[in-house]
């Protein structure tokens, strides 16, 4: 069945998939730890979000969770998925993995809590990070498959780079569909948790 295709691609490249998981989650946790050791990393990022209006936008959307989820989904798909991982990889082999590695560290530092209230908010939000990062791992795996096919056509059983590129692109597309499903799930959960779970924890 076609629905199994993304899982078949993951299984066929299981080693790379596991390495990318370790890399991206590891860099996220490293950034998180760096934010704890150097709180200025987190506070500077928070100040930047307030200065560019992002914090105000989030606050204004909290009362309408489904619209908030749609905005979250758009940001994650376009800013991280397409601009950070997919598009760079279409031009330079594996470039999206490098960009995402940097993003993982930065996001970890940004989410590092600076007070007790933020620690409480992190309890439900940690699941959001797990879901969304798994989507980014899948897209990074797609970037890896595309790059390897492009550079070594023989690995996909063809003789020209053009054929290999198209085959790699097709596999990236399949993985992208699964990543999109995870990003939808993550956006809905994030919006609902910030609207209902986090306020409940902070009131308690």
State the main characteristics.
elongated; 204 residues; mainly alpha
Q: What does this protein structure show overall?
A:
- Helix 1 (5-12) crosses helix 8, helix 2 packs across helix 3 and helix 5 packs antiparallel against helix 8 (161-203).
- This protein is 86% helix and 0% strand.
- With 204 residues, it is an all-alpha fold.
List strands and helices in order, with pairings:
Layout: H1 5-12, H2 14-37, H3 39-51, H4 54-61, H5 65-91, H6 95-111, H7 116-151, H8 161-203
Protein name: Stage II sporulation protein M
InterPro entries: SpoIIM-like (IPR002798)
Keywords: Membrane, Transmembrane, Transmembrane helix
CA-atom Rg in angstroms: 18 Å
Low-confidence parts, pLDDT < 50 over ≥5 residues?
none
- Tally of contiguous helical segments: 8
Note the main sheet: none
Mean pLDDT: 90
Percentage of residues in helical conformation? over 70%
Give the H and E element order: HHHHHHHH
Protein name: Stage II sporulation protein M
Keywords: Membrane, Transmembrane, Transmembrane helix
Summarize the structure.
The protein has 204 residues and is mostly helical. The chain has helices at residues 5-12, 14-37, 39-51, 54-61, 65-91, 95-111, 116-151, 161-203. The protein has one domain (2-197).
């Amino acid at each position: 069945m076609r629905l199994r295709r993304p899982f078949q691609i993951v299984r066929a490249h299981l080693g790379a998939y596991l390495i990318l998981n370790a890399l991206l989650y590891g860099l996220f946790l490293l950034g998180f730890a760096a934010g704890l050791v150097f709180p200025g990393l987190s506070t500077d990022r928070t100040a930047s979000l307030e200065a560019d209006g992002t914090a105000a936008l989030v606050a204004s959307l909290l009362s309408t969770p489904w619209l908030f989820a749609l905005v979250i989904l758009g940001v994650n798909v376009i800013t991280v998925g397409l601009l950070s991982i997919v598009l760079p990889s279409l031009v330079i082999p594996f470039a999206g993995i490098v960009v995402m590695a940097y993003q993982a560290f930065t996001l970890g530092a940004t989410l590092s809590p600076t007070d007790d209230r933020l620690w409480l908010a992190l309890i439900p939000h940690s699941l959001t990070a797990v879901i969304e990062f798994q989507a980014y791992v899948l897209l990074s795996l797609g970037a890896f498959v595309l790059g390897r096919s492009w550079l070594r056509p023989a690995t996909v059983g063809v003789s020209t780079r053009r054929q290999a590129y198209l085959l790699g692109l097709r596999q990236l597309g399949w993985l992208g569909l699964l990543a999109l499903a995870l990003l939808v799930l993550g956006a809905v959960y994030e919006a609902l948790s910030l609207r209902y779970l986090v306020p409940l924890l902070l009131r308690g």
